[in-house]
Design a protein that fits this description.
Elements: E1 2-11, E2 14-24, E3 29-33, H1 40-48, E4 52-60, E5 63-64, H2 70-76, E6 78-81, H3 93-100, H4 109-119, H5 136-148, E7 154-158, H6 166-181, E8 185-190, H7 193-199, E9 202-207, E10 210-216, H8 224-227, H9 233-239
Parallel strand pairs: 3-8, 3-9, 6-7, 7-8
Antiparallel strand pairs: 1-2, 1-4, 4-5, 9-10
Length: 240
């Protein structure tokens, strides 16, 4: 589905991620972990086309997407849920969701809206409310729903749990688990390891923009001494 081959990206002359090789498969959740400044968000933004590629390739469904603009990537099936949600605060929930389908599934707004509202029932009664009036958890639901309106095959989720109450985090992760079972490839960036490790199939750990660990979630038990330096052993013990 997605292949990063010697992928490097950054801002201006600064390289934030160095020579990353990563494969994400359909029906899998891949967790991308690391401390602040490790390059997690830069990796997602680079895949989505919002951060400059400095080297290597981005391959999606067998095609080289390295030089394609963001709107082409959305149209091809790459959906992004950005850090901080980035909703249009003065637009309604319905309007924010509708915008999400513009590049890829404009003719399927009705059915896709219904799917989003089935996944997030709380949004149904808030369709005509401004996004600014929603709670943080509800805003995150809108952000995920907006990405789903384009019928993505690859979903990139940046800092899902940041600033959210535990119940909202659980609701959002339950939806990701449903989407995984439907065959979506999902990459989730998290600073908080415990919740994402409950659902992740594979784990990638970055440190200073470089890969320091990759493996199945269960394999972290055998790599705990090394990973402790980047994630914290107590988080792993609670999650595995």
């Amino acid at each position: 589905m997605l292949q990063l081959v010697d992928f490097s990206c950054g801002y201006g002359k600064m390289v934030a991620v160095h020579d990353l090789n990563l494969t994400v498969q359909p029906g899998k959740i891949s967790a991308l972990l690391g401390a602040n400044g490790a390059g997690k968000s830069s990796t997602l933004m680079g895949i989505a086309g919002h951060v400059s590629l400095k080297g290597g390739q981005i391959r999606f469904k067998g095609e080289d997407f390295s030089k394609k603009p963001p709107e082409v990537r959305v149209a091809a099936g790459i959906g992004l849920v950005p850090e901080g949600r980035r909703l249009f605060a003065e637009l309604t929930v319905h309007e924010n969701l509708t915008i999400g389908g513009y590049c890829r599934a404009k003719d399927k707004t009705g059915p896709n809206m219904e799917k989003v509202l089935t996944l997030f029932p709380r949004l149904r009664e808030r369709l005509q409310q401004r996004a600014a009036a929603l709670s943080g958890g509800e805003q995150q639901m809108v952000a995920i729903g907006r990405a789903l309106m384009s019928e993505p095959e690859l979903l990139l989720v940046d800092e899902l749990s940041l600033g959210l109450m535990p119940k909202a985090v659980d609701d959002c992760y339950a939806v990701l688990d449903t989407l995984k079972k439907e065959g979506l490839a999902i990459v989730v960036v998290e600073q908080s390891t415990q919740r994402v490790l409950d659902v992740a199939d594979e784990v990638t750990v970055l440190e200073s923009g470089r890969l320091v660990y990759f493996g199945a979630r269960e394999e972290l038990k055998n790599a705990s001494d090394m990973v402790d330096a980047y994630l914290g052993l107590s988080s792993l013990e609670k999650s595995l």
